[in-house]
Amino acid sequence: MRPSPPAVDQNPPRSERGGLLLYSLAEFREIILECLDLVGGRSVVEIGGEDGTFTAELLSWAAARDGRVSCIDPTPSKGLVDLVETSEVGELHRCISLEALPAMPPSDVYLVDGDHNYFTLLHELEAIEAISGPAFPLVFIHDVGWPSGRRDMYYSPETLPAEAVHPYDYGRGAVIGSSDLVETGFRGEGEFAWAEAEGGPANGVLTAVEQFLADRPQLKLQVVPCVFGLGVVYPSDAPWADAVGALVRTYEEIPLLERLEQNRLDLYLHVLALQRAQFEQGLHVRDVEVENRGLWARVHELEAEMAGLSQRSQQLAVEVATTVAARSFNIAELLSRLHTRGSDKPGISAARMRSLAEPLLPGAPPDSSTASPAP
Fold this sequence. Notes:
By secondary structure, the protein is α/β, with parallel strands linked by helices. It has 2 domains: 7-253, Vaccinia Virus protein VP39 (Rossmann fold, 3-Layer(aba) Sandwich), CATH 3.40.50.150; 282-360, no CATH class. Helices cover 43% and strands 11% of the residues. It has 10 helices and 10 strands. The strands form 2 sheets. It has a 7-stranded mixed β-sheet with strand order 3-2-1-4-5-10-9, sandwiched between helices. The chain has a 3-stranded antiparallel β-sheet with strand order 6-8-7, with no helix packed on it. Helix 5 links the parallel strand 4 and strand 5. The chain is rod-shaped and about 130 Å long. 31% of the residues are buried.
């Protein structure tokens, strides 16, 4: 499985990153490595190496048995490249599986954990069958459970035939119990897309396995129902079939594993929903902070305007006080009284103008009408 590292930790994908999500084939190491010995194989093909977590264990297993590990990954991580290229028992094919498989010799065991969609998985199984001849090998297939079991996942849908691709979405996520995608849930965060609908024909990894087995009664499928589901496909008439079947059955027939997986997925989806809510709350807080910064900037602008008005008011008050004190103003006041005598219109008043100007003069005490009351 190759979940995406999300923005703001929406989908923390790796067990190495805090242990929140177990997803690697490495979680099945006890089953897979013991089956490798039961088969007596020496060659292993791993489709989808990710960061090399399980590849490292396969290389150690092969080195102790004079074996060979071939890893197919079109976009290998630096860790995977360094791991395989420094190993004497490993080789790396940097291309998609459907290009690499037909050119490779048959292998004893295949680990399929690449592009999780119906078209790719079905054609991978057909390619394995074509190069293996009558002796079909042991094949481990990851992600036969939820969410990829009945819903296609696409890393590069443009590389697949148009008729093989369901309508898909890179942004929305999958949740248990809903055929439709939702805004939260298990999302690809732009790295991979989900088919918009779950179920139906030609949709999902498990659907592809069942289609492949439908007319091949000699092949058997067993499923370990945890960590997104491990499918084990093998020929029932192989000399090692009974031993492999018995080993896998000890895990397949434990109902507790299925309940634990359901609980794990429910808790994980709940965490994703909480993270989504936290992310959206963070966006809201950010918007409020931006708005507050704008408001404070406006406050500073208004304070500057008020300071300017205050300065101009003081200048005007000085001009008024100077004018009122002038001798010529006394003559103007006298003429105003004569002009307004007998009228209800107020005339020019030095006293009134002083009462308005003096509180605005520099150093004037606060206006008693606006001052705070004494305690």
